[in-house]
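hey can u check if this looks right to u? its 285 residues, i copy pasted from the old doc so theres a chance i mangled smth
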Amino acid sequence: MAEILKGKPIADALKKRTEELASLCRERGVDPTLAILRVGEREDDISYERSAMKRCEITGIAVKNVVCPSDVSEAEFFEILNGLNEDLSVHGILMLRPLPKHIDPEKARKMIAAAKDVDGCGDLSLAGVFTNAELGFAPCTAQAALEILKYYNIPIAGKRAVVIGRSLVVGRPVAMLLMHENATVTICHTGTLRLPEVVREADIVIAASGQMESIGTESLKKGQVVVDVGIGWSEEKQKLCGDVIFEEAEPVVSALTPVPGGVGSVTSAILIEHVAEAAYRSISR
């Protein structure tokens, strides 16, 4: 049976690290602050906002809520976003997405200052991931996958890793992060031929295709470590499931993240840690 790589102990360790950084900042007169930018009253946005606020509260991070009406003009929205970039009291910006159709999401994503891009969505942050330079922050979910492997002392250097998914949110950045740790990486996607055969060659599998329960025994082998990034609601099973069929993977692989309780909790903790790190960088330059 596989070792279950739970996210909670990692999230707890990240929380402690965040608290220590936040304390160091306050000793130097800086109060780490996250600005949450929301447009409209979408229930899922509000729920995520509340969750982020709660995490900030328990780790000593201040929050500035900026709420725009759903019909805010594009020009006014960009003026507000630029104001947050220039506000020295704000160290991180979390822009809730998707944005309304009348606001250009690419322009908005690229406008966030790299120093405050704690969600790792801007081009400079992604460039930093690809060049292994401190230009912003890695996308939180991609970093979460690496944090899990490192916390559980899973060897990465020299290992064959297969990433299923090529998005800029997870797939491509996590592949780069793995390469920086000296793994040999293959990225798979919808155009990959003989996908199960390719995945079976891996020592480490990062499942991030967004295709619920698409990875089963035909793709897995003994000794593999599987990090399941996917999450969705299964009507058939009436529960949250990942990209990997947990019941098929657990008896085969050596280690596996659960869904829920795996990558998600680590991702949230990393977002808040990035705020503290951004504040610390602002006083360390």
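The chain has a mean pLDDT of 96.
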